[in-house]
Amino acid sequence: MKGIITFVVMKIQSKNLEDVVMAFSDLPGIGRKSALRIAIHMLSQPKDKVESFLEALKSLSAIKRCRSCHNLADSDMCSICEDRSRNQGLICVVENIQDIMAIEETGQYRGTYHVLGGVISPIEGVGPEDLNIDSLLERVKKGTVEEVIMAISPTIDGETTVYYISKMLSSATVRISQIARGVAFGGELQYTDEITLGRSIRARLPYAVNGND
Question: Whole-prediction pTM value?
């Protein structure tokens, strides 16, 4: 126990190591103790393994956003949007890229996506103009989209976002649907198990805006 306490409070003598610890501790969920453990672990690894790790980190700067759906991409278009075997007339609207990964894991969906980058949240100061909504509307205006699936986390802010987008699309000749309630209200899509999420995609329901049903 005494050794652990000494390890936690000891001052790092190397400025280089201190810089590495500071960088790691900036990551979500990584505190100073964990950052120091990671840094010391890296020091014990073969030089070529460390260099490979650093090269992988450098690759982050080359990652782009798909100009169509805002998914992560290695070029101007992501691999999903470029895949002609997928249903280009089907757009699944999600909050973030983690949701795309979660839905892809189900193997139940073969359309395209659109990443909003969050949800409308007045409390957090996030309005429609802060999200990728305009680009979604532009995609639908092209006239090749048949259905827009709202795969937004079933929270109050999520429901507000779905309602707003549906109102904006009310004049378009496109079906609007919403994933089934297999996903519990208040939950987040990326944390839903793949079986439940897959069933929710397959059993999606038409979405009706009040006064338009």
Answer: 0.74
